[in-house]
Structure formats: C-alpha cells, structure tokens
Amino acid sequence: MNLIELRNLYRITLNDFSIRESDYHLNILLNEYFNLDFTFININPAHKLEESQINKILKSLDKLKNNYPIDYLINKKLFLDNEFYVNEDVLIPRPETEELVNWILEDNREIKDKKRVIDIATGSGCIAISLSLYNKYFETVGVDISRKALDVCKINKKRISSKVNFSEYDIREEKIFSEKFDIIVSNPPYLTLNEILTIGDNVKFEPKIALFAPSEDPLLYYKKIINFSKINLNKKGYIYFEINPLYIREINQILAENNLNDVNFKDDFRGKKRFLKITLNE
Questions:
Q1: Whose CA is closest to 125, among 93, 80, 169?
Q2: Which among 150, 108, 106, 107 is positioned nearest to 129, based on CA atoms?
Q3: Phi, psi values for residue 115, rounded to 5°
C-alpha cells in the first residue's frame, strides 16, 4: 500500500471526519511513527510502506474510527508550547486549562519572592510543571491520588527538566503539610455521570477517576480543597479552580457557607464561566 492509497482509505473509513481532519490525523501518525514529514508525503504519494508499518497505521485507523484520541496514539500533547507525555492514565490537557495557568502566571508576573504552590489532582503534571517553568519564584508541588498518573508526572518531569515534586495524596483525607502554601490550584473531577451523554465520545477513553465527581455530591472536591486551604494556605493566599459552569449557583453557596467573599469568576474562550479565584483573607 502506498501513501495515496492509505490516504484514500483514511478518508473513506473516517467518514465522520472532514477530509482535512482525516488527512491531518494521517500526516501526524506518519510523522510520529515513521518520521515521514508533510513535505515527503506530498512529494512522494507513491511511496510504499513496509508491511509492519501498514499494520501499525491500520491499527491506529481502527482506533480513530472508534473515537480514540490521537493524543493517546502518539503519547503526546502540546500544552503551553511544551510536549507532555500522556496515556490513558491521565486526562489530555485542554486549552481551557492553559487559560487557568496563564491567569495565575499573569497575576504573579511581578513577584520577587518565593511562593509555594500546590497543584491538587495534578494528572499529567501539566499545570504544576508549567507554573514552575514560567515563574522561577514558584516552588511547586503536585499531588494526585493515582499512582499511575504520578508515573506519568515523573516522565514529564524528566522530559521537561522540571524541579516540581510529585507525591501521592488523597484530598479527601485531611493532612497538614509541614510548610503552608501561598497558592492552591486544582482542576479536580467535576463532571457527573448525568453529563456523560453530553461529552465527546473520545472522552470515554480518559480515566474516570479524573473526570467524574460523585453524582450525589458533585462539588465534593471543591469542598475538600477549601477545607484543605483552611489549614494549609497562608493568609492572603489564593485558590484557583477550574470549575463546572453548570454548578455556579451551588459553588456560590459553598463560598458563602465558608465566608469566602473575595472571589472572582473568569470566562473561558468559549464564554463559559470556567475559572474561579478565591483570596483567603483570614
């Protein structure tokens, strides 16, 4: 099978994709798997692949047809200009989360002293590593309940030459750290099983532990992190959340119950209330 035949097969098989999307996915895989770049593919449409290459690219086609994320196929996702390793043990970093990180970086652009930062439910480590990478005054810790996710963090720490410390921690268990933090950031599980029909088919391959909060208490992790802040966040410290826009009213209720009045909501690039910043005054 040559490249033009493979391209046509991708276009026919991925009939839910546009031609442009189908070609894009194929080009990405050919480059990542076999180092065949876009120029080579265009200049050499009659280039024949080896049998082992054909088998690999056809297996990927079968997965793509079933909405398997290409980021997992190539074990790579770009986040704030850095390539992070990803697999099925962690969420695929999203543009909205880049916005959250940029908000924190902008708020702290002028600092000249060390600030201790903790990223709760760190997943791939993209938030923690990016914050540490782009602000030399951040001393950052990433924690997660999943040991498999922490294995991914270790890969990314080495890949991006990060100094972030990662450790296992379940936010549902109260813990006092030896030194308090100045910033807490978290993109915790915030979907409920009731929303499963509204999310993309490719999301079903991502870890449920990182996606779904308990249906009977969808804001559990926000409550736990706020409780965590009461014992582990310095006065005038900050909490930054990525939030579910469907629960703004309930979030406001939690804030009121905890006497948290210095709060700011921020829209994402789609115009949805996606982020929350809380200043701890006491």
A1: 93
A2: 150
A3: -130, 130
- 3-class secondary structure, 281: coil
8 A C-beta contact, residue 228 and residue 183: no
What does 213-240 look like in DSSP terms, one character per residue? --TT-TTHHHHHHHHHHHHHEEEEEEEE
pLDDT (tens, 9 = 90+) of the chain, 282 residues, equals 999 999 999 999 999 999 999 999 999 999 999 999 999 999 999 999 999 999 999 999 999 999 999 999 999 999 999 999 999 999 999 999 999 999 999 999 999 999 999 999 999 999 999 999 999 999 999 999 999 999 999 999 999 999 999 999 999 998 999 999 999 999 999 888 777 667 777 888 999 999 999 888 999 999 999 999 999 999 999 999 999 999 999 999 999 999 999 999 999 999 999 999 999 876
Can you give the length of the chain in residues?
282
How is the chain split among helix, strand and coil, in percent rounded to 5? 45, 20, 35
pTM of the predicted protein model? 0.94
Q: Residue 219 — φ and ψ, nearest 5°? A: -105, 20
Asked if 190 and 218 touch (Cβ cutoff 8 Å), the reply is yes
Q: Of 181, 100, 183, 188, which Cα lies nearest the Cα of 144?
A: 188
